[in-house]
Amino acid sequence: MDDKLRNIIQFFLKKFFPSASDEVTEHLLQFMKFGLIGVSNTVVSYLLNVAVLMALAPMKVSWDFIAGNIVAFVLSVLWSFYWNSRFVFTVKDGKKRSVWRTLFRTYIAYGFTGIILNNVLSWLWIQIFGISKYLAPVPNLIISVPINFLMNKLWAFQDVDQK
Predict the structure, then answer these.
(1) How far apart are CA 109 and CA 104, in angstroms?
(2) Which of 46, 78, 81, 84 is a Cys-bridge partner for 106, taking CB atoms 3.0 to 4.6 Å apart?
(3) Mind spelling out the 3-state secondary structure of 92-149?
(4) In angstroms, rounded to a whole number, what is the distance separating the alpha carbons of residues 52 and 90?
(5) CA distance 154 to 133
(6) 113-151 pLDDT tens trace
(7) Could you read off the pLDDT of 33-75 as tens digits, one per residue?
């Protein structure tokens, strides 16, 4: 699948950006795979949140949505970590990676972009610019997804030389 997607990317790059290097193709391929895993992560997060809400419904607790958000965040980031480490940010030959350090950094990256950055941006769009709270998540994604990708690529999934 990587080869087919790589060929499609190369076709469009050569058509519109003839001087684009193979390295650009690889970065775009990596970003697209990251995005696909992000879409699956969103679905998993939503389903987990709903599952917790349904499980807690008979108890009629007022904090069910908080529990749903916490469970969805913790498990969906774990989901993203697993798939990103297998298909997006793979360990290069001669390198190694600490699974626990990478997982911890992944939670920090997703916590920053998914919780802190999105809330700050939402406040900005809604309170300062008057954008609808239903539309505010759209520009948030345009900003937070590339930042999350870079944080994961350059920091969380950073390889070290094997000794």
Answers:
(1) 9
(2) 81
(3) CCCEECCHHHHHHHHHHHHHHHHHHHHHHHHHHHHHHCCCCCCCCHHHHHHHHHHHHH
(4) 32
(5) 32
(6) 989 999 899 999 999 999 998 898 889 999 999 999 999
(7) 999 999 999 999 999 999 999 999 999 989 998 999 999 999 9
Which helix (H) or strand (E) segment holds residue 160: the answer is strand 160-161
Residue from 84, 144, 157, 86 nearest 117 by CA: 144
Q: Which amino acid is at 147?
A: I
For the chain, the farthest-separated pair of C-alpha atoms sits apart, in whole angstroms, at 61
Residue from 69, 35, 24 nearest 142 by CA: 35
* Span between the terminal Cα atoms of the chain, in Å: 33
